Amino acid sequence: MSLIRAEGLSLAFGGVLAINDLDFAFDEGRVHSIIGPNGAGKTTLFNLVTGIYQPTEGRIWLDESEITGFATHQIAAQGVSRTFQNLQIFYNMTAEENVMVGRHMHADTRFVASLLGLPGIRRSNRECREAAAELLDFVGLSAIGDQPAANLSYGILKRLEIARALATEPKLLLLDEPAAGCNAVETAEIDQLIGKILDRGVTVVLVEHDMRLVMAVSDHILVLDRGSKLAEGSPQEIQNNPDVITAYLGEGEGDQDAA
To answer: Does residue 122 belong to any structural domain of this protein?
Structure first.
């Protein structure tokens, strides 16, 4: 069944349509990728799904409940989390503290109870720290929990941001170019991590320019062209689609970056 779907989704900035009458449906328990060149509307679509932008027209459903017009925190509370193309890391915090920030929806944040250090608050803080440690281990970063984020490499920070996104306990995780700027080893680590996230029961939607990664991990691919759907299907169908080959992958370059 579809975990998230949209009908007639459009977003205009002035007279420019960034997303144009887009329909899509992403099934639960799969890895979906969105590809297209810069300006195709990939990150804009993420911003619509997560409530950063509100659509000019159209509707969005999550688990058959409409979320059109919801604020970002309301959508997060419904089980949607994301990473960003440009890292959103708290560099003055440790790796573990960064992940703990992602647990805010599940923590006891009562002001007076916190001020008094009541047992419920102490228990909540302990559980939050334990959950952060488990997630750091899950993404392969258990050894650096106490290190300041400012001291960590770019590839490690990419996985740290994924750990923080998972801390909200999402059912839908949106990854915006998780391998951008990563070397081959770091990209392979992201590949393996996406598989582990799927095994955890989280549906993944991926925006990525690295076509090798996209073709390796995806069950389904949506191709955008200036905010409109050009094609969708399995990796093999997309690789063999003449419109996609011409527009994005290039003749004979199906395994290259769609930059």
So the answer is: no
Q: Along the 259 residues of the chain, how does pLDDT read in single tens digits?
A: 799 999 999 999 988 899 999 999 999 999 999 998 888 999 999 999 999 999 999 999 999 999 999 999 999 999 999 999 889 999 999 999 999 998 865 554 544 445 445 566 567 677 888 999 999 999 999 999 999 999 999 999 999 999 999 999 999 999 999 999 999 999 999 999 999 999 999 999 999 999 999 999 999 999 999 899 999 999 999 999 998 888 765 544 444 333 3
CATH number for position 219: 3.40.50.300
Residue 27 lies in a domain: yes
Structural domain count, the chain:
1
Nearest one of 244, 193, 226 to 10, comparing CA atoms? 226
Q: Structural domain of residue 47, as residue ranges?
A: 2-79+170-249
CA angle 230, 22, 59 (to 5 degrees): 165
